[in-house]
Amino acid sequence: MGRAVCERIRRCVCLCMAFFLALPFSGAAGCGEEQTESRYHIEYLSKDNSRLVKVEYEPVATDTDGLIGEFLGVLCSDAENVEYKKPIPGDVTILSYSLDGVILTLRFHENYSRMSAVEEVLCRAAIVRTMTQIEGVDCVAFYIGEAPLTDAKGNLVGSMTPDSFVENPGEQINSIQNTTLTLYFSNESGDALVKEVREEVYYSSNISMEKLVMEQLLEGPVTAGAKAAVPEGTKLMSVSVADGVCFVSLDETFRNQDYRVNEAIVIYSIVDSLSELSNVSKVQISVKGDTSGVYRDSFAMSDIYERNLDYVAGTESVDTEESTEQETEK
Fold first, then answer.
1. Local structure of residue 159 (DSSP, 8 states)
2. Domain boundaries defined on the chain
3. CA gyration radius, the chain
4. Are 157 and 150 in contact (CB under 8 A)?
5. Whole-model pTM above 0.85?
6. pLDDT for 202-261, tens place per residue?
7. CB 3.0-4.6 Å disulfide test: which of 198, 206, 226, 267 passes with 167?
8. CB pairs under 8 A, 24+ apart, for 237-240?
9. Among residues 44, 46, 47, which one has the least CA distance to residue 55?
10. Quick check: helix, strand or coil at residue 125?
């Protein structure tokens, strides 16, 4: 089945090349002649596998089915410019594809899973952004054999549109970077912080580091003996930094009371994690921008909090209630 599909794609590419070679050469456009831009483009990988590059493309096919086969063929073929690389590696095989309504479903051989995290995200983005240019294709679904594609945590990726790769309004994923983050979660008893260092965290260059920290923090820990300090289900509304102060706005779920985790641990899970960033020295937390009132009993929402590692397990022990009172006095 896989070989048949690949052969079909290769034939489509060869047909396209033959068509263009058969066209009469007209030379460069003369004076006064307009050079029309193609309405289509192909998304290629940069030579260093760090970003996507758009290259204009004039297809031979004119119908939806023909364009799907042609575009997949091009995505599997080497680019003319040696500075670009095909987004679908040579060892990644498309077993089959089908258009169901407006959803283009692609089924890959299990070797798709062998791609690195960076390569896979860019490959997926290139395919989705290229294929959804075709009229009648609104989104793309990825399968590994008969199983739908899942992320590193086993969650279904689902059907994707170009907007699936937008990190900030008006900005699309163009490059992938990686970093090491230091996050702080609650211990199981809820009375101390557990330090977790995450290496090789991949993210789009469009996303701010403070947003990345908050998103990773809200996902919860991977360290044994640790649990999320922030109430489950809390969503990030916005996060920004000005003059070293990080302003974090969370949704109403943040006010949910879980007395199994001390209030100081909740606050400093956020403050200490963000304070690991070089551009953050203080943090203010709000609920939908509202800084009135207090968090639980002692922590004024209007206050700006500085890093405090006294609660981290393994450091000098501190009486939690006494420390909370000291924070209130400040």
1. -
2. 2-18+38-165, 176-329
3. 26
4. yes
5. no
6. 888 778 899 999 999 999 999 999 999 999 999 999 898 988 999 999 999 998 878 899
7. 206
8. 237/288, 237/289, 238/289, 239/208, 239/210, 239/211, 239/214, 240/208, 240/210
9. 44
10. helix
